[in-house]
Amino acid sequence: MKTQKLTMTQALVRHLAALRVEMNDGSVQPYCAGVFSIFGHGNVAGLGEALWANRAALPTHRAHNEQAMAHAAIAYSKAQFRQRIMTVTTSIGPGATNLVTAAALAHVNRLPVLLLPGDTFTSRAPDPVLQQLESFSQGDLSVNDAFRPVTRYFDRITAPEQILSALPRAVSIMTDPANCGPVCLALPQDVQTQAFDCPEDFLHPGLIHFRRPPADAYELACAAATLRSAKQPLIVAGGGVLYSQAWEALRAFAETHGIPVAESQAGKSSLPWDHPLNLGAVGVTGSPAANALAAEADVVLAVGTRLQDFTTGSHSLFAKAQLLSLNVQPVDASKWHSTALVADARVGLGQLSAALANWRAEASWTARAQTQAATWVSRVTELTTAVPKDVLPYDAEVIGAVRDSLNDAGGDSGTHDVAVCAAGTLPAELHKLWRASLPGNYHMEYGYSCMGYEIAGGLGVKMARPEQEVIVMVGDGSYMMMNSEIATSVMLGQKLIIVVLDNRGYGCIQRLQLASGSPRFNNLLDDCVPEGGSRSTIDFAMHARSLGADAVHVSDVAELKTAMARARAATGTQVLVIDTTHTRTTDDGGCWWEVAIPEVSERSEVNAAHARYLAAKQDQRP
Fold first, then answer.
1. Above 90 in pLDDT, residue 212?
2. Longest Cα pair distance anywhere in the chain, in angstroms?
3. In sequence order, which ranges of 232-339 are alpha helices (DSSP H)?
4. Residue 415: pLDDT band with limits 50, 70, 90
5. How does pLDDT run across 3-62, given as a tens digit for each residue?
6. CA 429 to CA 622: how far, in whole Å?
7. What are the structural domain ranges in the chain?
8. What is the CA radius of gyration of the chain?
9. What pLDDT is recorded for position 621?
10. Separation in Å, CA 517 to CA 371, 527, 528, 606
């Protein structure tokens, strides 16, 4: 066996750089597209040296915030439908712990990312080193142990030879359709620099091919029997439809069997927005068309969804339906007493369709779905284009202006634009109102609902889809939490269009606060100024310009459309700021969401809210 004398990190980087993946279109691409790095004393000398030597084969990108660069890496993978990844490295200490939130986000959303934080010396000779956490009860503990509950696989490399088994194992997790998620290899500072005889085979790994597990014959028969018993079935398309690239299989299945489709946040764009059987968004942020039929469906076929509470209305929306879950992950397929069909979404839909033969849903149900879908399409146009005068705009009107700014120029925003968002009121409005014609043109992080993901995520999407216009829609609250990657997008030449909706605080949570019976408290900026304090006068456009972007504050929706046209023609990152109101929202659609209300309170409003809460829980699925 031929070997080469390499340091542990040299071997790691060369293995990563050599990894190739067979894409669903048959092409072969590098599996790891690059490394986001913020260097510190725990990774600059060891891993940094290896990255420099291999910078042509594995590009390294400097970022401005560790959490943000991990968000960008995760978004890259999501935009690539989990077929490719990016890697993230930090030093030990705050750099490492800044990754924990991003790791949790990737874990919740079933998205792959390789985290390579530095770690303390295994020799312990210089202990305690700068940034080292000292445990009085566990001598081998470091801050990196915080990654254990928020990653799918964790390992600490305490000898250079361990990379030979640890890295392939990490890759196997990230490429496993059922267990896909973040992995962490903690790299002690001294071990990074230690050399060993590395087998040359390790430097030439085999081609990655994604498995598509078929359904078990017994489960397939049960699933087919369940659907044949249905008269009014509904499909709920989740993120697994996109990750399996099963959108054509979904379309064919729905059309063949006359079943309407509703989309979760992660599954939106599985069908084109104008498909006759696409009822739109489902759940708490759902359309009236999807939610009305969900409440009456006798069988719900959940495809590639983990049935989050926003999708199910805290398990009240289709509580009376029989659940049939097609999912590659057995735990997800078995949730809420579902009839489980464990399989790849694309393969499973094909098998299930064949097993159903000529069976179709009742014709009247299919026709009703098509009518309601068409009605909702018309209503979306009305909501996003009817802009009243002399009042602040709200999210729907901004969404319409952003969307139609390309249509006015003769283009198709559904084809060319990717909308990126994460938290606040915008996910509800975008879920209902954004129109996506192509898979992946709606990029929402709503599994972890992580404020601050938006701009960093937009950067990752742009790196994955450079040919498309990436439009980040973000509230002022999320903007304030994390905006540093505006500077990174400028530095890397990755153009973003960022639309900042300024409603002067956490408007979404204030509405929830008031609905729960509590008074206005600690949410809107003007409510948070103590005696002796000063009213907030943040100028978001000026701030964005200081980071290198072109930025403007527009006065109204009409001016926003004009500014969007200029932004589309520009070559660098653009930031458009518009004042909005949190008091107006889209009332159409939606359903109950369980938020616990205090059992006792001095406020009559809270007691009334608690009574409504108890009444709503009666419709919850047991």
1. yes
2. 78
3. 239-243, 247-257, 288-296, 309-312, 330-333
4. low
5. 999 999 999 999 999 999 999 888 999 999 999 999 999 999 999 999 999 999 999 999
6. 30
7. 3-203, 217-374, 387-579
8. 25
9. 85
10. 38, 17, 19, 4
Yes or no: say if 261 and 293 are a contact pair by the CB < 8 Å rule: no
Q: Which residues pair with 302 in a beta bridge?
A: 236, 325
Name the residue type at position 154: F
b/e burial code for range 107-127 (CB count within 10 A of at least 16 → b) = bbbbbbbbbbbbbbbbeeeee
Half-sphere exposure for 65 (CA within 13 Å, toward CB): 21
**d(C-alpha 405, C-alpha 560), whole Å:** 9
The H-or-E segment that residue 554 falls in is strand 550-554
Angstrom distance (rounded) from CA 457 to CA 463: 10
* Spatial separation of the C-alpha atoms in residues 442 and 79, rounded to whole Å: 9
What whole-number distance in Å separates Cα of residue 114 and Cα of residue 174? 8
Q: Which burial class, exposed, middle or buried, applies to 255 when counting CB atoms under 10 A from its CB (0-12, 13-18, 19+)?
A: middle
Burial class (CB in 10 A: 0-12, 13-18, 19+), 271: buried
Give the span between the Cα atoms of 249 and 39, in whole angstroms: 45
State the residue for tokens 């978004």.
75
387-579 matches 217-374 in CATH topology: yes
- What is the number of other CB atoms lying within 10 angstroms of the CB of residue 169? 12
- Which residue in the block uniquely carries the two structure tokens 């002067």? 504
**Residue 157: what residue type?**
I
What is the C-alpha separation between 308 and 286, in angstroms, rounded? 13
Task: Give the strand pairing for 195-199 and 3-7.
Answer: antiparallel
Mean pLDDT across the stretch 400-427? 82
> Is the whole model's pTM more than 0.70, yes or no?
yes
Helix, strand, coil percentages (3-state) for the chain, rounded to 5, are: 40, 20, 40
CATH superfamily of 217-374: TPP-binding domain (3.40.50.1220)
Number of H helices, E strands in the chain: 25, 22
CATH class of the region 3-203: alpha beta
- Side chain identity at residue 519, one-letter code: P
Nearest CA-CA partner of 120 in 102, 103, 107, 138: 138
**Mean pLDDT, rounded, for 112-122:** 97
Q: What share of the chain has pLDDT > 70, as a percent? A: 99
Q: What angle do CA 267, 104, 97 make, to 5 degrees?
A: 150
Predicted confidence (pLDDT) at residue 296 exceeds the cutoff of 70:
yes
Query: If DSSP states are collapsed to H, E and C, what string results for 531-546?
Result: CCCCCCCCCHHHHHHH
| Structure-block tokens of residue 204 | 């030439």
What is the three-class DSSP state of 245? Answer: coil
Packing angle of the helix pair 363-385, 395-407 (nearest 10 deg): 90
Contact 12, 186 (CB under 8 A): no
Beta strand 153-156 with 85-90: parallel, antiparallel or unpaired?
A: unpaired
Q: In the CATH hierarchy, which fold is given to the domain comprising 387-579?
A: Rossmann fold (3.40.50)
Q: Which percentage of the chain shows pLDDT scores above 90?
A: 96
Question: In this predicted structure, what is the pLDDT of residue 412?
Answer: 58
Q: What is the pLDDT of residues 473-495, one digit of tens each?
A: 999 999 999 999 999 999 999 99
Return the C-alpha torsion angle 255, 259, 262, 268, nearest 10. Answer: -20
